[in-house]
Fold this sequence. Notes:
Strand order of the largest sheet: 26-27-25-28-29-24-30
Number of strands: 41
Low-confidence stretches: 365-377, 841-851, 1064-1068
Helix content: 25-40%
Distance between the termini: 54 Å
Largest sheet: 7 strands, parallel
Number of helices: 36
Structural class: alpha/beta
Radius of gyration: 33 Å
Number of domains: 7
CATH architecture of the largest domain: 3-Layer(aba) Sandwich
CATH superfamily of the largest domain: P-loop containing nucleotide triphosphate hydrolases
Amino acid sequence: MDRSLVLVARNAEHAAYYHNDLERLFSQQEVLFFPASYGTAYATQTDENANVLLRTEVLNKITYSTKARFIVTYPKAIFEKIISRRTLQQNTFTIKKEDVLSLQFVNESLFEMGFERVDFVTSPGEFAVRGGIIDVFSFAYQHPYRIEFFDETIERLCTFDISTQRSLHNFESISLMPNTSTVDFTDNRKTLLEFFPDKTAFVVDDFDQTANLLKNLFQKAIEAYAKLGETTQHPPHSLYISKEEWLSNTASKCILHLERSDLLPADSLVNIQQSPQPVFNKKFELLRAHLNENHRQLYSNIIFCTSASQAQRFHDIFDAMEEKVHYQTAAFPIYQGFEDIEAQVAYFADHQIFERYHKYNLRSDKTKRKSLSLKQLTQMEVGDFVTHIDHGIGRFGGLQRIEVEGRLQEAIKLFYGERDILYLSIHALHKISKYNGKDGAVPKLYKLGSKAWKNLKQKTKTKVKEIAFNLIQLYAKRRQKIGFSFDPDSYLQLELESSFIFEDTPDQLKATQAVKMDMESEHPMDRLICGDVGFGKTEVAIRAAFKAVDNSKQVAVLVPTTILALQHYKTFSKRLENLPVRVDYLNRFRSSKDKMQIYKDTTEGKIDILIGTHQLVNKNLSFKDLGLLIVDEEQKFGVAVKEKLRAFKANVDVLTLTATPIPRTLQFSLMAARDLSVIATPPPNRYPIESEVVRFSEPLIRDGVLYEIQRGGQVFFIHNRVENIKEVAGLIQRMLPDARIAIGHGQLEGRKLEQTLLEFMEGRYDVLVATTIIENGLDVPNANTIFINNAHQFGLSDLHQMRGRVGRSNKKAFCYFMTPPMSSINNDAQKRIKAIAQYAELGSGLQIAMKDLEIRGAGDLLGGEQSGFINDMGFDTYQKILQEAINELKENEFQSLYKESSDVPKNFVNDVQIDTDLELYIPEYYVNIVSERLSLYKALSDIKNTNELKAFRGQLLDRFGKLPNETEALLESVKLKWLAQRLGLERMVLKKQKFLGYFITNPESAFYSSAQFEYLLQQVQKSENITMKEKQSAGGVKLLIVVDDISTVAKVLHTLEPLEFVTVSSDS
């Protein structure tokens, strides 16, 4: 290509798809995207930094490189005038490796260029200084830069990753550019067409439409300017391009257009002989016929697939057909299929065949400004409630330097009761965690030394142990029973799975395989499948149900609500419509006559899959040969139903589904007591829900509702106050007199509420004004807009689940969180709203660790009473106690069930206390931000093996430079702690150049009869500098080892390492 080519698409969405297709054909370096930098004229405060970055990157590459490229843009982006080449060059700060520059000079230059100094760089236009390192996010490149100095010489230039802060690639030189879209650069602006070299070619999708759109945008800019009055010095023509200017600019350019134009000569029209891909309604017989007809007409057929596994699905489907099908596949997704009549080639897009949404992938989606990270949501701030495993709940007072026997150390300050203060060593950081009970719950503060906390811990542990014991015992009993072994998959099973419109996610595939293995084994299945809303749990259940029916067994699907019974009935029926399966359902809306017929048909085995509420466990209903019971959201059933379920479960395979996420740590604990599959990855190509935080505004509500109704959709409007819900519905009715509006809330009579929800599901209403009753289980694929009024009053989990009601089809969905001005709501609510608005992707419910949901999950799984304990002590502490209880059960009552392999080194001690006068910490001059130091200490306390420790050291080196001696010693102390756990030492004292290591206090411990202890005794006898002693104390005789004249952690490690019986790498 000898010249650059600018493609002007109809709109931003088309441009994004064109950009993706071109990027796949060529490369990321050759294809650039030029977006609009803000929403409306003069609204520069809404600048999207990620878009400004992409714009500046294009201008930078066009200015400083002669390489020919594709640039994809759209009318709204062209509308904004841009900085001139000369101004751009004057405001570019180029730095080369080996340049002699002072850190102070670079710092001041960045200030002058309008960069903002921050603690950590996350967005374009920011910089941070740490020691001899400057991090800066230029507007000219997709990643921020790291500049490392050696005295006044630039030693290294590289990019780094925002989320990990780790280095990526080295550079010989870098260009730093400010935000060129601000008012500082408004003089002598140019149009985009003037910026490009004369020989550049422009391909315009629809020239006339672009000209008219520019005309409308310019008119709106004139109106906005008039409203601003004297507050701006810049008239529209200095910032924006009018239709007339566009026409005069294009007159001298090489312009090609794809649609007929009244404004351009006919010879500039590019006439492409093509027709769009036909619609097949997911019917593969129609597709087969079309492909073979094409083949007879001498056309080539190429199906473009999103992945190799998707291509394999086509092969599997067509191989199963009797007639040969003529086609080829390519693992290369395209936006739209078409038939090239001239070349006689038909190109098919797989997502159009399966009627799935195909999402474009843009860098600006990934570079959202100031994204709230998981770390920010969970990190401790001064004043936060924290739980100490030994002392209970207190308040966090930050980090503090304290002097221990003349040496400086860093400690964590905790406040208890009214005046008690506890200084906690950084080596004991694992003992504290941020308190997380239910959203907004204020915990009880404890006094230091009080028995109340100890009693609560003991009471919780006893109860937890009892629950865990019952769970494990039940699990063990089921493993001993012999049930029905299902046959391997049949041809019909494969056909059913191939017809699934989505591609299986890895988690879904794993869950399906696990369920099939359970069903094919001789033991009755009892598997729990946990996954966020819309993650495909139901599909796994449908496959399991069909497998049972295929083996001449019946299936019962038990659901908690009437609405859910009908929803599942529709889903199961649609998926199994082409297979020899009869599906029916029972709920209170069925007539007595229907019910009697269903009872009769079920008993005679004529119904294969019966879906219903608690009526399924009715004594009048009996199955001819029940093989599988599927239970959806078991925790929502009452005690009576659960009792009947136990009888049901005795010998049939049971599959339980839950949408409440189970915390990861709890998953591992439960592995001991239940077969568990977690579906944590969202389905590919689901539209992310466009989430916005807005003020309550009648025009906004009217426009949002009207837009949804006009595209044939429905709207949820959440208002959680029953006393004035009718007024809100009336307000919407006044704004939109033709809209069909329904009201739903928990105070309505049960049958009336169900009838209303049912009618909304069936499309008889346009808008449902409701309380949070819609939060769980309501599946209305046609509803794709939701307004949540007073969103600041809800917890994260509620907001996440309510938003999960929309975006369940292949239409773009919108969610509006309506709040008062941010300044008037408290900090926690602001954090929640920002977090939920920024994590718009499906599945982010799990990603941002919504503790409120997880607490619910733990309570659902382990019994409601546990929720009380969790709130009393905080979730993380509760989990530690649960893990302790399960470990004790594994080692004692259920020892035979859990035989651990002998090659894993045994930790005889769970926790090692370290007392030292050595300086083991991260100095303030090395990491000067307190919250980051605390975060690093926390990360260090979570490290489990030498590989992780090595990576942590590399991260410090990369981000902060050479490690100080105190920090090197701190890292060595972690290795010493691991060694102590394996050597049976529960306390270590390293003071005044002397080491004391105290063995396990309990003389009954398995450690004293282990090969490790025997070996250690032999080694101590041989050693010249290690002695073993007994020391009398209040708790009885203590056994310890002593090493004299030892001054560093490294020396202690070197001395104690030979005492280990089996030297196995701690990486295992």
